[in-house]
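User: tokens in, sequence out, please.
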């Protein structure tokens, strides 16, 4: 009678498994845990820094430790000033589109000339900066406003004919002799001409913008 041999099933053992030990397994798990812990800490720090830097995007302030959300602020502002702000944005965009349509470009040099002119009117650069701070403006915002005004002025001058004659200057001088008492026409001629030009420019700008607005398609969902 043949005796059955007990055959033990053997499995190939990899070099890694052969060399592995409870101690090495523990160290591997511990190392993985350390990496995860460091990652959590780093993400936490980044989240805190971002929340601190951009917290005003969600919360704009607190009242007795109760938060005032950006949503609340925007809702109230929209109710009070939404329509007027929308109108301002529409007007600004329409003018920008018309200026681009007419191929008008304002250079940095033109803006600089205007800034220098305004600075001179204020007497000094310090006075000009103080005026900007008083109105809550930065120099960059002031330059942007100047750029828009120059663009609008060029637009009016390109699409409308403005001519101030010597007769118009003399008539203005004669009609306002009390203002120019003791002065001759030649002394104030250029000043009067510039004043009349600005008045005509303003009138033409109103006419131009009225036409642009009437032909525009504007929709509001407020």
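Assistant: Sequence out:
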């Amino acid at each position: 009678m043949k005796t059955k041999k007990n055959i033990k099933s053997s499995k190939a053992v990899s070099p890694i498994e052969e060399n592995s030990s409870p101690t090495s397994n523990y160290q591997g798990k511990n190392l993985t845990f350390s990496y995860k812990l460091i990652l959590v800490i780093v993400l936490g720090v980044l989240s805190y820094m971002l929340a601190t830097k951009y917290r005003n995007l969600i919360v704009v302030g607190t009242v007795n430790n109760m938060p005032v959300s950006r949503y609340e602020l925007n809702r109230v502002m929209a109710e009070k000033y939404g329509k007027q702000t929308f109108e301002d944005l529409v007007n600004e965009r329409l003018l920008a589109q018309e200026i681009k349509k007419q191929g008008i470009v304002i250079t940095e040099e033109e803006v600089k000339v205007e800034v220098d002119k305004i600075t001179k009117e204020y007497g000094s650069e310090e006075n000009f900066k103080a005026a900007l701070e008083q109105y809550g403006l930065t120099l960059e915002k002031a330059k942007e406003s100047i750029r828009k005004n120059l663009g609008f002025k060029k637009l009016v001058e390109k699409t409308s004919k403005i001519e101030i004659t010597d007769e118009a200057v003399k008539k203005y001088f004669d009609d306002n002799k009390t203002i120019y008492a003791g002065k001759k026409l030649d002394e104030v001629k250029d000043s009067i001409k510039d004043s009349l030009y600005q008045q005509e420019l303003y009138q033409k700008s109103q006419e131009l913008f009225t036409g642009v607005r009437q032909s525009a398609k504007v929709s509001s969902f407020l």
